[in-house]
Amino acid sequence: MHTYAVLIIGSGFGGQCAAVNLLKAGIDDFRILERRDFFGGTWCQNTYPGAAVDVPSPLYSLSFAPYRWSQMFAEQAELRRYTEQLIEQFGLRDRVELGADVERVEWDEAEKRWLVHTRARGTFRTQFLINASGPLSQPVIPNFPGMDRFQGKTFHTNNWDHSYDYRGKRVAIVGSGASAAQVIPAIAPQVEHLHVFQRTPHWVLPRADRKFGRFQRWLLGLKPAYKLLRWLIYWQFETRVIAFKYSRPAIHLVQQHALRFLKRQVPDPLLRQKLTPDFTIGCKRVLVSSTYYPALSRANVTLHSREHGIASIDESGINTVDGEHLDVDLIVWSTGYDATDGVISYPVSGKNAVQLRDVWAEYPRAYLGTSLPDFPNLFIVTGPNTGIGHTSALFIIESQMNYILDCIRTVRAKGLRSIEVRRDAERTYTAMIHREMQRTVWKSGGCHSWYQSKSGHVIAMFPGFSFSYHLLTRALKPADHILS
C-alpha cells in the first residue's frame, strides 16, 4: 500500500493547481492519480476539430504561470502546450500515477486516513484527499433504439478518433452546444453532407478573437503587463453578472444584441426561426462564435430541430421522428457531460460508512462547493455551485486553493489529524446559495440546462460575482469546522 500526506485525483488544471500550491506550501509528500495514460486533463483529452477556449487566454491561465499566448482565444494545441509547460516548470511529471482509475474511496476512522482503491495501481492511503476530476469529465451519450446495429463509425467529441477520415463522408452531429459549435464550422467544408441534430437552440454572441503580434506577445511575457491585461479582462467580464442576476434591462440589451447578430449572420428566415431560443439569454451556456451560424447556412448542412429529431438508428443511419431515413457514415455525439449529479463518478464512503451518493441523493451540495460533513479531509475542486458562467473557471479553482491549503496547513500546524466542516455551517451555506440562485437567469430564465440537477436545483453555477466567492474562501473560518 502506498502512503502519502495528500492524494490528488485528476491531472487537469485543478489537479495541477493543487499540486503547485502544495509545493509552494512546502508539502511535497503527495501524488496525482490520473485514470488515463497521459497527464494533462481537458486540453489534452479534447482534441476534436475546432476545440478552443471561450474565455480570453490571458484570463484562462493560472495567475502564477503567465504565458505568451498567440491569440486572444487559444486553440486546443496551444492550451495543451501551456499545460505541458506547467507540468515541466513545476516538475509534476514525476508526481503522477498514470492508469490509476479510482474504483472507490473510504474513510478509515481509526487511522484518520482515506483509502483510495484503484483498478490497476492498487490501494493508496492518504491523510488528505483532493478530488480534481472535474465536472466535464464524464461524457453522456443518449440511448436511442438500434444504436448497436449501426455499421458506421461513432464517437463522442471527448474521444475524437483521429484515425477516422471524415472528409467526403456523410456525417451526423447530435447536439448543438459549445463543442458542437466548434466542431461544425471546422468540418462542414470538408464533408459531403452534415446533419446537425439540435434539441434546443442556444444564444450565440460574436467571438472577438485576434492574433497577438510579436510585440504584444513580448509584452505578455512581462509579469506587470500580463497582470494588467488579466485585471482589465477580469473586470470587463465580471460585469456580466449584473445582467445574469441583478438587471433585467441589462440582460434584455444583451439578448437584443444576440438577436441582431443572428439576423445578420442567418439571412434565411426559416433557418433563423429554428435557431431562435425561446428562453432568456444566459439561462443556458451562451455560445461564443462568429463561424457557427455561417456553417449552419451552408448548402451541405441540414439542421434538424426537435420535431425532426432522432427516433431510432439502424445499420445505415438515422430514422427521424417525422419518418425520414438519413444515410450517414459517421455519428458524432456532442451531447455533453454529467456535470451535476455525476460530479464524482466513483463511490465515496465517509465516517460511519456514510455514502456520498446518499448525501447527494436529492442534489449535490458542499460548503464552499468544496467540503462536506461526515467526509473529513476531503476537498472537491470545482464541486457543487462553483461553476462560473461569465469568467474564467481557473479564478475559482485558485480561490478554492486558498481554503483547501488553509485547512491542510491548520491541521498540520496544530499537530492534529483531521478537519471536517460542521453540519450547520454546510446547511447555512447551501441555503444561502439556493436563496441567491432564485434571482439568477439560470433559475428563472425559462430553460432546463445541464446547470441543473435532476432535482431542478441549479448545481453547476455560483450565484454571484466571482470576487464574492474569492472573499468567502480567503481564510478558514475555524468556527465552521471540527478539528480533531
Can you offer a commentary on this structure?
- The protein is of the alpha/beta class.
- The chain has two domains: 2-39 and 92-138 and 338-483, FAD/NAD(P)-binding domain; 147-202 and 241-333, 3-Layer(bba) Sandwich (FAD/NAD(P)-binding domain), CATH 3.50.50.60.
- It has 15 helices and 20 strands.
- It has helices at residues 13-24, 42-45, 76-89, 178-187, 214-220, 223-238, 240-246, 248-265, 269-274, 292-296, 356-359, 393-413, 423-437, 441-444, 466-472; strands spanning 2-9, 30-34, 96-98, 102-108, 113-118, 123-131, 153-156, 170-174, 193-197, 204-205, 287-288, 301-304, 310-313, 317-320, 325-327, 330-333, 348-349, 378-380, 419-421, 481-483.
- α1 runs parallel beside α12 and α12 packs parallel to α15 (466-472).
- The two termini are 25 Å apart.
- This is NAD(P)/FAD-dependent oxidoreductase.
CATH structural class of the largest domain: Alpha Beta
CATH superfamily of the largest domain: FAD/NAD(P)-binding domain
Shape: globular
Mean pLDDT: 94
In CATH terms, what is the architecture of the largest domain? 3-Layer(bba) Sandwich
**Fraction of residues in β-strands:** 15-25%
Largest sheet data: 8 strands, mixed
Q: Output the CATH topology of the largest domain.
A: FAD/NAD(P)-binding domain
Itemize the secondary structure elements and their pairings.
Elements: E1 2-9, H1 13-24, E2 30-34, H2 42-45, H3 76-89, E3 96-98, E4 102-108, E5 113-118, E6 123-131, E7 153-156, E8 170-174, H4 178-187, E9 193-197, E10 204-205, H5 214-220, H6 223-238, H7 240-246, H8 248-265, H9 269-274, E11 287-288, H10 292-296, E12 301-304, E13 310-313, E14 317-320, E15 325-327, E16 330-333, E17 348-349, H11 356-359, E18 378-380, H12 393-413, E19 419-421, H13 423-437, H14 441-444, H15 466-472, E20 481-483
Parallel strand pairs: 1-2, 1-6, 2-3, 4-17, 6-18, 7-16, 8-9, 8-16, 9-12, 10-11
Antiparallel strand pairs: 4-5, 5-6, 13-14, 14-15, 19-20
Pfam families: Pyr_redox_3
InterPro entries: FAD-bind_Monooxygenase_sf (IPR051209), FAD/NAD-bd_sf (IPR036188)
Protein name: NAD(P)/FAD-dependent oxidoreductase
